[in-house]
Amino acid sequence: MDSEAVKKEIIRQALQATNTTNARILIENINEKCFERCVPKPGSSLSSSEQTCLTQCMEKYMQAWNQVNATYIRRIQQEMANNSFSSSS
Amino acid sequence: MSSQEFTIDQADLNKLTEKDKAELRQFFSNEEHRSRIQSQSHELTAICWKKCITSTIKSGQLDKNEQTCLSNCVDRFMDANLATIKHLRNMRQQ
């Protein structure tokens, strides 16, 4: 491998690691929140209405994540422009 | 970054030119920033989900009220955050 190939491989592996971690955290949170919401009283098996709820909850949680992320990024950019985070102001 | 095993060894790293090293430093600095934002988004989504998605889940779509609530939740969380920082700054000056 030459320098370019080594660099590309490092970047590829790093991105994969970050994205895997990100997906793992998202799935953990979805499981926790949607189980809490959709299965309030666990029975002997998952009912079909619980399964429907889990699917919808998951889609909803992902949308919520995207919206929160977009709002958060917009706000950070706004505050950076206003210099709100600098300790001297 | 996670504990994933890198198959790149020291001999490979020694091949990196100064230019590529600089590029990698920049890449990791950007990634660190991106990671921090993503991790904060995970926390904020959990916090705001609890406050905004309160009715029974009947569809996989966010409704208008939930969307507005989520945006307000993030913005007010940031307001609260900045208010705390500001107050701490004042306390230090006294």
From TrEMBL, chain A:
One of its GO terms (cellular component) is mitochondrial inner membrane. One of its GO terms (biological process) is protein insertion into mitochondrial inner membrane. Pfam families: zf-Tim10_DDP. It comes from the Eukaryota. GO terms for molecular function: metal ion binding. The keyword Chaperone applies. Belongs to the small Tim family. This is Mitochondrial import inner membrane translocase subunit.
Automatic annotation (TrEMBL), chain B:
Residues 26-89 form the Tim10-like domain. It is found in: Mitochondrion inner membrane. SUPFAM superfamilies: Tim10-like (SSF144122). Its main location: mitochondrion. InterPro entries: Tim10-like (IPR004217), Tim10-like_dom_sf (IPR035427). It is a peripheral membrane protein. GO terms for cellular component: mitochondrial inner membrane. Gene3D superfamilies: Mitochondrial import inner membrane translocase subunit tim13 like domains (1.10.287.810). Keywords: Chaperone, Disulfide bond, Membrane, Mitochondrion, Mitochondrion inner membrane, Protein transport, Translocation, Transport. Signal peptide: none annotated. GO terms for biological process: protein transport. Heterohexamer. Belongs to the small Tim family. Mitochondrial intermembrane chaperone that participates in the import and insertion of some multi-pass transmembrane proteins into the mitochondrial inner membrane. Also required for the transfer of beta-barrel precursors from the TOM complex to the sorting and assembly machinery (SAM complex) of the outer membrane. Acts as a chaperone-like protein that protects the hydrophobic precursors from aggregation and guide them through the mitochondrial intermembrane space. The twin CX3C motif contains 4 conserved Cys residues that form 2 disulfide bonds in the mitochondrial intermembrane space. This is Mitochondrial import inner membrane translocase subunit. It comes from Chaetomium thermophilum (strain DSM 1495 / CBS 144.50 / IMI 039719). The lineage of its organism: Eukaryota, Fungi, Dikarya, Ascomycota, Pezizomycotina.
